[in-house]
Design brief:
about 325 residues; mainly alpha; 13 helices; globular
């Protein structure tokens, strides 16, 4: 029998599309900081207004792109509304409140490395809180290596005069990754009620509206409205929609481990794009940053590596 091979399962296709997604996600770190600069954004209310406008637009784009790719619906079922509201709370409102405030207090390089630890929080929350999978020696080893990256970032300091740890900077970035990890577990739990692209698109839109309203009510304003700033805002909306769309497309055709293994590219991209676009070369090329990046990327690789490799046996921890 002549079976046609699915082109989206080919190694080259998975590598190419996953790499594009991760490069897009990594680009968000310097783009957000550039957006702050070009739009004259100062203070938390204005940061939340910026985030809210981005995700309101990203929600519309995600649904439209999802419908075009998956030939699905434009509106969710009524039964999916509670799931969408829970996702909006964790995936957009909480995650990006912490994320946008954090980037106002961190360099792009430092933020990229800390955000890369989200994979490890996701593993721990999925195993210990939602009981969606089992802990194993391999997963624990990967998490330990990844969290060593956090210690390197915070004990060494990545620039002259920078505090080893700040609540609004490092702390809020870690809170952001925890909220993201809870949302990932919820998305897995709710995914059978509605198409993932529709769940994410709708929660982006609702969460974006909440952030926009909160930013406006609390006095958020743009200090300047420039062509560069508006272009960055639109670009960030497309980053969310396209990166998520490609990732969801790959997950629909491949095992999770085959796709997720490439996520280590995201912090790497964030570090080097921040060095290039923000002029943070001294931080990106310093040994603490490079070693921390190696720990985080290596940990992501280990926890997501296919089980057929035998570096760490899949001994489950009950």
């Amino acid at each position: 029998m002549d079976k046609k091979r699915d082109p989206l399962t080919a190694v080259g296709a998975v590598f190419g599309l996953a790499t594009i997604s991760c490069l897009l996600w990594g680009s968000a770190f310097p783009l957000i900081k550039l957006g702050y600069r070009y739009l004259g954004i100062r203070g938390i209310p204005s940061q939340l207004l910026f985030a809210g406008l981005r995700f309101t637009l990203a929600g519309v784009l995600t649904v439209l792109l999802g419908k075009a790719v998956f030939k699905g619906n434009l509106l969710p079922k009524k039964s999916a509304v509670p799931s969408i509201l829970w996702l909006a709370l964790f995936q957009t409102i909480l995650q990006y409140t912490f994320f946008y405030v954090s980037l106002g207090h961190l360099s792009g390089v430092r933020g990229s490395i800390l955000n890369g630890t989200g994979t490890f929080w996701a593993i721990l929350i999925a195993c210990l809180v939602f009981h969606q999978e089992k802990l194993s020696v391999r997963k624990i080893a990967g998490c330990v290596l990844g969290f060593a990256g956090i210690l390197l970032v915070n004990l060494s300091g990545l620039k002259s005069g920078e505090a080893p740890f700040s609540l609004l900077g490092d702390g809020f970035m870690i809170f952001s990754t925890v909220a993201s990890s809870v949302s990932a577990a919820l998305l897995r739990q709710f995914g059978n009620k509605e198409a993932p692209y529709l769940l994410s698109g709708c929660q982006f839109f609702i969460g974006g509206l909440v952030l926009t309203a909160f930013g406006l009510i609390s006095g958020g304003r743009f200090g300047a409205v420039t062509l560069q700033g508006i272009a960055i805002l639109i670009a960030l909306a497309f980053v969310s929609a396209i990166a998520y769309g490609l990732w969801a497309l790959l997950l629909a055709h491949n095992p999770v481990s085959k796709v997720q293994i490439y996520f280590f590219i995201t912090p790497v991209a964030g570090v080097f794009l921040s060095a290039w676009l923000l002029g943070e070369q001294n931080q990106a090329l310093g040994w603490p940053a490079l070693l921390a990046l190696l720990c985080v990327s290596g940990g992501i690789y280990i926890v997501n590596r296919p089980q057929k490799s035998n570096i760490f046996k899949e001994k489950k921890i009950s």
